[in-house]
Design goal:
The complex is a heterodimer of chains A (about 400) and B (about 250). Chain A has 15 helices and 14 strands. Chain A is of the alpha/beta class and about 400 residues long. Chain A folds into two domains: about 140 residues, 3-Layer(aba) Sandwich (Rossmann fold), CATH 3.40.50; about 220 residues, Rossmann fold (3-Layer(aba) Sandwich), CATH 3.40.50. The longest helix of chain A has 24 residues. Chain A is globular and about 55 Å long. Chain A starts with 5 loop residues before the first strand and ends with a helix. In chain B, about 55% of the residues are buried. Chain B has an eight-stranded parallel barrel, surrounded by nine helices. The longest helix of chain B has 14 residues. Chain B is globular and about 45 Å long. The chains are: A alpha/beta (about 400), B alpha/beta (about 250). At the A-B interface, helix 1, helix 8 and strand 11 of A face helix 3, helix 5 and strand 5 of B.
């Protein structure tokens, strides 16, 4: 057992023998990069010239006034190139792919943001790119599929299993098992076998490092609470990691409550009783599973949170109670999104809106000299079809009908 | 024990055959018929897969079989009962194949105890490397069950030596990169690889991933001890029926 691969009881590398040498190589390349003083400046330099880093920390004055509680700040990961925090990890792994001399990348994607980011990186770095995406997500995230293909990636719809993110990960693993000599698997979240949880967290930690500098500069004090949505957990680990040692900062992870925890149609692994420790997709963590250990179906309005496992680092932080986990339902999320748009003119992704929903619920109970930070992990325009349906917007519907009619003409 | 059974069997046969099946696919009744057919065709040992929802080492054919078995109600308890019945009915050794989580959820102690009670010979768990499997190895050892480990073309020599030190029964060599059920070219590079495997283990060698024809089995004579036939029998059962599976295996052995 490799102690570095474990976070309490969670993590590890439960991988088929065929992938072992590749994973070991990746670990070695990552460790070398991490201890190379020129690597982080190369990475952050790339992010500032290619992806608007540092992203702003926006004071939400209208929402603060609306709730008359804590002062609300929003970390604007939506302003990254490609519209979400996913690009941080992807560009970092792109640099590692170059160091490994590989010419092809593969990735899984749920909401499509990670797929678009990977296709973008592949275009910029001149790499072949294949994206695995569940059939369900291909259908609900068509605009992102369009962009991935235009960027030169091959998008393969996955029809096996429950047709969600986990099935796309399985297919990417199978591809990797056959093509690891030329191919790097750009896993999109802080899950999977070691070293992925550590590596993805390392690249995403740029979010929290910036927030720390920004909030100390503008308020000269640390926030009382930080809210982040939790699918696999990469944006949450990214913003939390800079504050883990600050006991005064409460870290709140918001999972997908779906249609309500009591309905069973959700993806809440840490804040509800349905999940327990298990091993799948190469690592040990809390999984939503039945008594035999078969993975359950999950549901969320947000494709990016619709995942059966969760970062092993977050599972450990759950057990040690360093992070508080809670959930927001699909309905809470739509309401929070509407309020964020109307009060601040910002459009959070459905995933990020989970963090907004909880922050809005709790902000009024805090005092005016306390600060909360919400991680807006992505922008909502990608969700226009889902959101328009949720708002039942009549003008949008007639636009779609008219537009479709033009194709038939 | 498993190794001595294999050695004894090898005194009279140049190469042994091991077949694979997913328990409960397409039903437990058909699974039982399939075992009867395989044993009658002369296979020397069998791996019985307990279906799992996330079989990452398996290709499309076995993946589909896993999903169908689960969808039609296969559970771990039913699979263990089935495996026990097969071991009581037939004289050849039976191994379980599954993924870590199936064993982890039962508990390694209870799982291996049940295996021993049901006279099963060993287990293949492709996502449980020995580094993560201290509890598994201890319990398998306590019940005199054979933990089968895997060599792959990417496994370095020192690791083969390490795997050999914890493996019992035989070593399973995957013939190539990738998942189950795609073509393998049985060639000179395979020759070099199998010779390397042989040098690094004291145990019999099984070769799997891509054995589909008599010539593949013939190629393995003197290079390995056991030819593993996995995906091909599922394909035949699906497209041509049980009779074709029997004919295919009889021609191989």
């Amino acid at each position: 057992m490799n102690d570095n691969a474990y976070y309490g009881r969670y993590g590890g590398a439960f991988i088929p023998e065929i992938l072992r040498a590749t994973i070991k190589d990746l670990e070695r390349i990552f460790d070398a990069a991490r201890s190379d003083d020129t690597f982080w400046p190369e990475f952050s330099g790339l992010m500032s010239s290619y992806s608007c880093r540092p992203t702003p920390l926006t004071f939400a004055g209208n929402l603060t006034g609306h709730f008359s509680g804590a002062r609300i700040y929003i970390k604007r990961e939506d302003l990254n190139h490609t519209g979400a925090h996913k690009i941080n990890n992807v560009m970092g792994q792109g640099l590692l792919t170059r160091r490994m001399g590989k010419n092809r990348v593969i990735a899984e994607t749920g909401a499509g943001q990670h797929g678009v980011a990977t296709a973008t990186m592949a275009a910029k770095f001149g790499l072949d790119c294949t994206i695995y995406m569940s059939k369900t997500d291909v259908l609900r995230q068509r605009p992102n599929v369009f962009w991935m293909e235009r960027l030169g990636a091959r998008v393969i719809p996955v029809t096996s299993g429950s047709r969600t993110l986990k099935d796309a990960i399985n297919e990417a693993m199978r591809d990797w098992s056959a093509h690891m000599d030329t191919t790097h698997y750009v896993l999109g979240t802080a899950c999977g076998p070691h070293p992925f949880p550590a590596m993805v967290t390392y690249f995403q930690s740029i979010i929290g490092e910036e927030v720390r500098t920004q909030i100390l500069k503008s308020e000269n004090q640390l926030p009382s609470r930080i809210y982040a949505c939790v699918g696999g957990g990469s944006n949450a680990m990214g913003i939390f990691s800079a504050f883990l040692a600050d006991d005064s900062v409460e870290l709140v992870g918001v999972e997908a409550g779906g249609k309500g925890l009591e309905t069973g149609q959700h993806a809440a692994r840490l804040c509800a009783d349905g999940a327990r420790a298990g091993v799948a997709q190469g690592y040990k963590t809390y999984f939503l599973q039945d008594a035999d250990g078969q993975m359950k179906k999950t549901h969320s309005i947000a494709a990016g949170l619709d995942y059966v496992g969760v970062s092993p680092i977050l599972s450990h932080l759950h057990d040690t109670r360093r992070v508080r986990f809670t959930a927001a339902t699909d309905d809470d999320v739509i309401a929070a999104m509407e309020l964020a748009m109307q009060k601040e003119g910002i459009i959070p992704a459905l995933e990020s809106a989970h963090a907004f929903a909880l922050a809005f619920k709790e902000a009024p109970a805090l005092s005016g000299d306390e600060i909360i930070v919400i991680n807006q992990s992505g922008r909502g325009d990608k969700d226009i079809f889902t959101i328009a349906d949720a708002f039942d917007d009549p003008k949008w519907k007639s636009f779609i009908i008219d537009h479709a009619a033009q194709y038939h003409a | 024990m498993l190794e001595s059974y294999l050695r004894k069997r090898l005194e009279n046969k140049k190469i042994l055959t091991m077949t694979h099946m997913v328990m409960g696919y397409p039903s437990f009744e058909v699974s039982a018929e399939l075992v009867d057919t395989m044993v009658a065709a002369g296979v020397d040992l069998m791996e019985l897969q307990i279906p799992f929802s996330e079989p990452i080492a398996d290709g499309p054919v076995i993946l589909n079989a896993n999903q169908r078995a689960l969808a039609t109600g296969a559970t771990v308890a039913k699979c263990m009962d089935f495996a026990g019945r097969m071991a009581d009915t037939h004289k050849i050794p039976f191994l379980l194949m599954s993924y870590s989580n199936i064993l982890f959820q039962q508990g390694f102690g209870p799982f291996t105890r049940a295996m021993a009670v049901k006279n099963l010979a060993g287990a293949i768990v492709p996502d449980l490397p020995p580094e993560e499997g201290a509890d598994y190895l201890r319990e398998m050892g306590a019940h005199q069950l054979a933990p089968i480990f895997i060599f792959s073309p990417t496994t370095p020599g020192d690791r083969m030596t390490y795997l050999d030190s914890v493996a019992r029964g035989f070593v399973y060599c995957v013939a190539r990169r990738g998942v189950t059920g795609t073509d393998t070219e049985f060639s000179r590079s395979m020759d070099t690889y199998l010779a390397r495997c042989r040098r690094h283990t004291r145990l019999p060698l099984a070769v799997g991933f891509g054995v589909t024809a008599k010539k593949d089995v013939d190629f393995l004579v003197d290079r390995a001890d056991i030819a593993v036939i996995g995906t091909q029998t599922i394909r035949l059962m699906e497209t041509k029926g049980m009779g074709a599976v029997g004919d295919f295996l009889t021609a191989l052995t």
